[in-house]
Amino acid sequence: EAQVTQNPRYLITVTGKKLTVTCSQNMNHEYMSWYRQDPGLGLRQIYYSMNVEVTDKGDVPEGYKVSRKEKRNFPLILESPSPNQTSLYFCASSFVLGLADTDTQYFGPGTRLTVL
Amino acid sequence: DQQVKQNSPSLSVQEGRISILNCDYTNSMFDYFLWYKKYPAEGPTFLISISSIKDKNEDGRFTVFLNKSAKHLSLHIVPSQPGDSAVYFCAASDSGTGNQFYFGTGTSLTVIP
Q1: How far apart are CA A18 and CA A40, in angstroms?
Q2: Distances (CA, A) of A36 to A91, B6, B52, B66, B112
Q3: Which of B21, B33, B108, B102 is nearest to B68 (CA)?
Q4: Rounded Cα–Cα distance for residues A71 and B53 (Å)
Q5: A71, exposed or middle or buried, with CB in 10 Å at 0-12, 13-18, 19+?
Q6: Would you list which residues of chain A are within 8 Å, Cβ to Cβ, of chain B?
């Protein structure tokens, strides 16, 4: 089954304790991305990657790191989490988008992070 | 600064009637637009997209209209069904500068049986 998986699905942590949220896709997609969803702000892109070893900042990259060492995995790293990073996080993947109407991103189920 | 805006946080429609969800954008360089549907406790799922070379795209009950001069797109759902009740996000991208996506804040659609 084609899917994007995220782990963990729920995480409660404390300020400053480094954490990693994993993301994996089995569709051989080149493009992967991380978003956060906050009330009244919709989905905001944190980082994205066009291929292995290629990453770019999205709209809200501060406080986050990513790496793309393998095509299927795109972990999100919070080196020193703070309460303002409490949010719902989504990973997504797709083939590199052109203008074809069928190109789209597939989203994972989400990770709800609480930083105390 | 929000480059993609959905000014209606919620919308209620009777089953069988048309649902119209609206989205405005500010960046004239956006050339690819998508609509996603999201149920609670799930990730968004792709619904329909349109590139700037078109002004309309249809997929079954879903039609997206793009008005480039007004920087406005809309999603029409006809006929609306109770299973359409979800949060709908529009998104936009400028393919010339990379694949960064900008999402709206979402519109919660309730279809009343």
Answers
A1: 27
A2: 9, 17, 27, 27, 30
A3: B33
A4: 31
A5: middle
A6: 4, 31, 33, 35, 40-45, 48, 50, 56, 58-59, 90, 92, 96-110
pLDDT grade for A58, boundaries at 50, 70 and 90: very high
* Mean pLDDT, chain B, integer: 94
Q: Do B49 and A101 touch (CB under 8 A)?
A: yes
Beta bridge partners of B23: B73
Check A109 against B42: CB less than 8 A apart: yes
Residue B5 confidence (pLDDT)? 94
Half-sphere exposure of A105 (CA within 13 A, CB side): 33
Query: Would the pLDDT of A71 be above 90?
Result: yes
Classify each residue of A75-112 as buried b or exposed e, where b means 16 or more C-beta atoms within 10 Å of its C-beta.
Answer: bbebeebeeebbbbbbbbbbeebeeebebbbbbbebbe
Identity of the residue in A98, A101, A107 whose CB atom sits nearest the CB atom of B43: A107
Question: Is A103 in a helix, a strand, or coil?
Answer: coil
